[in-house]
Amino acid sequence: MSEIDRPEGTAAPAAGGLPAEPLGVGVGWEIGAEGLEWTELFPRIARQARYVETAPLYDPRSLDRIRGDLAADFRFILHYSGLTLPGPTTRIEQHFPILNGLCRMLGSPWFVEDLGYWSVEGSDLGAFFPLILSEDSLRTSIANMKALQAGVSFPHAPENPPFSTILGDIHILDYMSRLSRATGSPYLIDVGHLYSYLSIREEDPLLALSRVDWQSVVEVHIAGGEMVRGPAGRWIYDDNHSKPIMPEVLDLLVLMLPRASQARALTVEVDYNRAERGVQDPLDVAVSNFFRAHAVAERWAPWLVDRAPRTETTSPARVAAAQ
Ligand SMILES: [Fe+2]
After folding, report:
1. What is the mean pLDDT of residues 311-316?
2. Residue 119 pairs with which residues in a beta bridge?
3. Ligand 1 centroid to 268 CA: how many Å?
4. How far apart (Å, rounded) are the C-alpha atoms in residues 163 and 129?
5. What 3-state DSSP class applies to 145?
6. Residue 288: strand, helix, or coil
7. Ligand 1 centre and the CA of 20: distance in Å?
8. d(CA 40, ligand 1 centre) in Å
9. Domain residue spans in the chain?
10. What's the CA-to-centroid distance between 190 and ligand 1, angstroms?
11. Contact 249, 204 (CB under 8 A)
12. Which CATH code is given to the segment(s) 15-322?
């Protein structure tokens, strides 16, 4: 990205396209989505939240509506969907101009997407299926990542998906590190998604974490969730973003953060669906989840927690946050 393209207030990228300075702790929240209102959420987390990670938004006015309340150094990260990196029939080049445009509009230093199948032969699935952990799928992901790197100006950090059933023999953390080594890409570990995988396999978390290439982990996700009945009646972890963060998932974050010394961002994903989840107090749950994860970062990843005073504004949200 040239100096001319870089939005005001964004840091210069370091070698490899990633910013040298951490973004800090932010929220995963879909701009423009209904339910959890930005005007209610943001004032309660404004003093600690440094960025929003959002789904694609195609109307810049919804971005402008929240930008007015934000400090000049507030950032955005694009959480894309639809690439289908492991899909053999994906037409990945169709996404290049969209990705370049969205990242420029948001000033997103990199963009993320869960590794999985969002479409099959051009048909949108409406959600995604987690990837098949096979050599075939890994080869496809590597080829698509290389094409992506050649066609898009912003680095892609793929994310380990949630699992309710595991297909294929490659360990998810080996899959991520092999994809990263073959392409030089950074990657993202979602703590809850990893918990879903480890709990199905009844695997020791510490042993599993020894498989991670920590130097390449640029971002960590955490969210609320709960145990639900899965296929064959077995209890599985559902990373639904709506419920309080489970203590076991917070414990896994404590194990991960000191190892993730190159991480530039910790995203607390707080989007939710009130009707579907039956959450009575979604705002309180979201705020509590944010600060519980923030407290872990203060203790175990102090480089993510900027204690310098923020740029002040006089917007109503700022004033409310200061009270
Ligand atoms: Fe995530």
Report:
1. 44
2. 124
3. 8
4. 9
5. helix
6. helix
7. 22
8. 23
9. 15-322
10. 5
11. no
12. 3.20.20.150
CA-based torsion, 150, 78, 172, 126: positive or negative: negative
Query: Is 211:173 a contact under the CB 8 Å cutoff?
Result: yes
Angle made by CA atoms 82, 85, 86, in degrees to the nearest 5: 120
Q: What is the pLDDT of residues 264-283, one digit of tens each?
A: 999 999 976 655 667 878 89
Quick check: helix, strand or coil at residue 149? helix
Q: Which residue carries 């639900």 as its tokens?
A: 228
Which residue, 103, 115, 105, is CA-closest to 155?
A: 103
CA 222 – ligand 1 centroid, Å? 7
DSSP, collapsed to helix, strand or coil, labels residue 9 as: coil
Query: Beta strand pairing status for 123-130 and 116-120?
Result: antiparallel
- 241 CA to middle of ligand 1, Å? 9
Tokens coding 70: 């934000």
CA of 28 to the centre of ligand 1 (A): 8
Spacing, Cα 311 to ligand 1 middle (Å): 29
Chain-centre distance of CA 262, in angstroms? Answer: 15
The position carrying tokens 């509009």 is: 105
> Ligand 1 centroid to 263 CA: how many Å?
15
**Ligand 1 centroid to residue 323 C-alpha, Å:** 31
Measured from the Cβ of residue 38, the count of other Cβ atoms closer than 10 Å reads: 18
Report pLDDT digits (tens) over 227-272: 998 877 889 999 988 899 999 999 999 999 999 999 999 999 997 6
